[in-house]
Design goal:
InterPro entries: GlycoTrfase_DXD_sugar-bd_CS, Nucleotide-diphossugar_trans, Och1-like. There is one protein chain. The chain contains 17 helices and ten strands. By secondary structure, the protein is an alpha/beta fold. Strands 1, 2, 3, 5, 6, 7, 8 and 9 form an eight-stranded mixed sheet that branches. It has a two-stranded antiparallel ribbon with strand order 4-10. The chain is extended. It starts with 5 loop residues before the first helix and ends in a 45-residue tail after the last helix. 24% of the residues are buried. The N terminus and C terminus are likely disordered.
Length: 540
Amino acid sequence: MMKWRPARLSSPLSPLLPISPLASPTLGTLSVPSKLRNRIPSQMRRTFPAYILIVTLLILLFKAEVFPSQPIPSASSVITKRSYLQKPLGSSASHSSLQDGDFPKKIWQTWKVDPYNFAKRDKNTARTWTTKNPGYRYEVLTDHNDLLYVESKYGSGPGGLNRPDIVEFYKTVTAQIIKADLLRYMIMYADGGIYADIDVEALKPAERFIPTRYNASDIDMVIGVEIDQPEFKKHEILGGKCMSFCQWTFMCKPGLPVMLKLIENIMSWLEELAKAQNVSSVGEVELAFDEVISGTGPSAFTGAILEDMNSKRKGKGKGQKITWENTFHNLDESKLVERVLVLDVEKFAAGQGHSNSGNHDARGALVKHHYHASNWPSKHPRFKHPAYGEVERCNWDAECVRKWDEDVAKWDSLSEKQKKKILDLKQKEYEQEMERLRKEKEQAEALERLGQAERERKKLEEEERLRKKARMEEVYRKAVEEDKKKRNQQALLEAAGLGSLQQQGLPVGPGRPKDKELALPGPGFVPPAPLPVAGFPPVL
């Protein structure tokens, strides 16, 4: 019986080997208990260190996945603790390069339904963005996929900002106009590009947003003036919204702190409003028209941008404070202020009838706002006098506003009889106005029906013309084929020495057997060119 086995010395588990098969002295020195050594096959003994390594790695991975080192706070606590959770989107390499270079070539819109289900008017306006900007990506967030976007961009998953407080807040908001305003700011912070309301038509390509005298690397945001009526800043109703930038169309690079600040401002504002109204959730807050404008709309947008501009200027320790009156009032050309390019009112808000906005036919107009999707004011009441209505109907006309203020001020001093007389008169004027609008609508519908009938008539005429043309072409084709056939027959006879069709007494034209030449099939027929030099056999 042999007492020494060389095979054991060559085993990968033998401590005599200088280097293990995994190049690891630790694993190479592992040995199997003597009782099991003869029972375990040699192949398993060789791979035993690898098994141990794999199992160890799996245990470590499982522990890291199941027991994270930093637990995510609950939804109830994240709303009060925001800053420490967020990942630094703006300082990442990709977004830093964008802020130093061109704007993302993306066009964003939000609406109730996806583009396949757009109404005709929405489809027409939306198409202008893609036709004028064929090199841009176009995306619409809807009432059905907006939350998925918010969770992917602001949630705790891969690529998210780890801001569950923002996600939870967005879920809680119920007012559609608040969600619409909030979502556009969230899109611009996370992705950047161009945002445009669904009822905004593109008149010029996006490359015209930045005049050629500027370099895109020096600009972080492109906005335009909407309302420039600072003379009303002391008005009780109009004062808070008489100076504002347009937010139905603007362009941003991603990761701008002002956009995140705007989002957080809205969250704090609604939370405080919920406390003031003594409701348990921001979704139960009731909002008036002016509260929407100042809380999430153009006034909030403008205030955040002005604050950001002044913060940057203060950090540099130079320059006077930026205000609307000393910087943007009567702006007649674009101006770059603290990396924000502000365009004059004609660019994004032409044709408003105020603020010297001109009209949409002007060379400088870049977009056209149709306002057909702006029905949110009907859900958020604004001050409406029982006799004189809303001061906003004056559309910033100074004389109209003065008269409205005067009439409202006198109202309380009138007797009940005088008030009733005025109300009856206003009711009559209202009915007359409604009748006028009804007739205008009927006329427009009649013209539309007439136009539709005319289009149908022209369509039928065109179809008939095409049918006639097809019949004429068919007749011509058959005539050419018949003539070619007869010419080939004549060539065959002549090549065979039998003479022409006329000499054989065969007809050469319809109903005329003795004609000296072939008869044309009809008026306007142009016979094909004669055959080349006759040979035998001829080409059929």
